[in-house]
Amino acid sequence: MSNFLNKGGYSDEERYIREREAEKRDELHDKRDSERQKQEGAAHWMTCPKCGSALKEVNVEGVMIDKCEGCEGFFLDKGEMQLLTDRKESHSFLNAIMGFWSV
User: Fold this and answer.
1) What's the CA gap between 100 and 81, in Å, rounded?
2) Is residue 75 part of a domain?
3) How many helices (H) and strands (E) does the chain have?
4) From CA 36, how far away is CA 97, in angstroms rounded?
């Protein structure tokens, strides 16, 4: 009887079941990680990294940048610094920043 199990039979069925269970475990693990990342992202979305207050989007020369309602710091997303410095209407980047603080 043990020769039958070693050559296939129940051992193949058990291997198949273990493989399916491992696949399901991996899917659940990936799903949990994805949900955790979403929740962590939502907890930090539009929150000031310095003081934790809410960030508000303001328009500076056509570029939407984030301004903290608490500490009044400003934060740029990827590419926004380049957009501000490349503006032809702007006399200088410093003028753009000074204009921002008056918003």
Assistant:
1) 13
2) yes
3) 4, 3
4) 36
User: With 0-12 CB in 10 A as exposed, 13-18 as middle and 19+ as buried, what is 79?
Assistant: exposed
Torsion of CA 68, 71, 73, 75, to 10 degrees: -40
Same domain as 30, residue 11: yes
- Cβ contact 52:70 at 8 Å: yes
* Cβ atoms within 10 Å, residue 87: 17
Q: Is residue 50 part of a domain?
A: no
pTM of structure: 0.49
Contact 96, 84 (CB under 8 A): yes
Give CA 2 to chain center in angstroms.
54
Domain count across the chain: 2
DSSP 91: S
Question: Which of 16-25, 47-56, 94-103 shows the highest mean pLDDT?
Answer: 16-25
φ, ψ dihedrals at 58, nearest 5°: -125, 150
